[in-house]
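Follow-up to my post from last week.
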Amino acid sequence: MTPFQARLTSIKTLAGARQPFDTQAVPDTPQALFSDWFDAAVEAKANEPQVMTLSTIDDDGTPDARSVVLLNMDEQGWHFAANATSPKGRQLTQRPNAAITFYWPATAQQVRIRGTVQRLSEDACRADFMSRPERSRASILIGRQSEVLESADDLRHALHEQLARVAAQPDLVSPHWGMYALSPREVEFWQSDAERRFTRLRYRRAGATWERSLLWP
Ligand SMILES: Cc1cc2nc3c(=O)[nH]c(=O)nc-3n(C[C@H](O)[C@H](O)[C@H](O)COP(=O)(O)O)c2cc1C
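User reply:
Got it. Predicted complex:
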């Protein structure tokens, strides 16, 4: 075993406070159960439980994934914000199928969501952009996310320039800033178990309602 492997194995996985999970007494919709689990994670003092992994597919069919912040959850789905010109924004325009994953170590729970992503209304995009502090708006206006940065000076200049624009035009909105919602086709709730009989409950959309199935761990 290498020292690195020894370090890895010395750290416990799924050490969080296990939650009761009665799969016979769950709500009809995955949104309602997600809300309960989210509250439990907050209650258990989960670190940044609103951060989720968003997985998309690039031009070659290769998966890509990154952290984004959950901004809302309703009948439209799980909402997040991103720049349409960023790699994830372009990937979502080309291939709107995506997945979201949450893992909350504090409660030893995972939620996996798969579905289709839609850009929300222009009003919603504008409102989210305007709710952000000036520096964040300036940074969005620069765009170029994930392009190669040749020097830190280039970033300083670009930020300076866009901060001046924002100060001069306080109503300026980036046309590329997007609010998106992932509308779920299926949502799986995974709960740890002391005897490795992990409980997995999947909601799958069936017309206007949801079918529920237990999954082998
Ligand atoms: C905790 C955390 C939260 C983040 N939230 C967002 C977010 O809500 N929206 C966003 O566009 N990028 C967010 N990022 C940055 C992305 O992970 C990513 O680096 C960036 O969006 C570029 O991704 P892309 O090249 O796949 O488009 C966040 C990063 C971290 C570490």
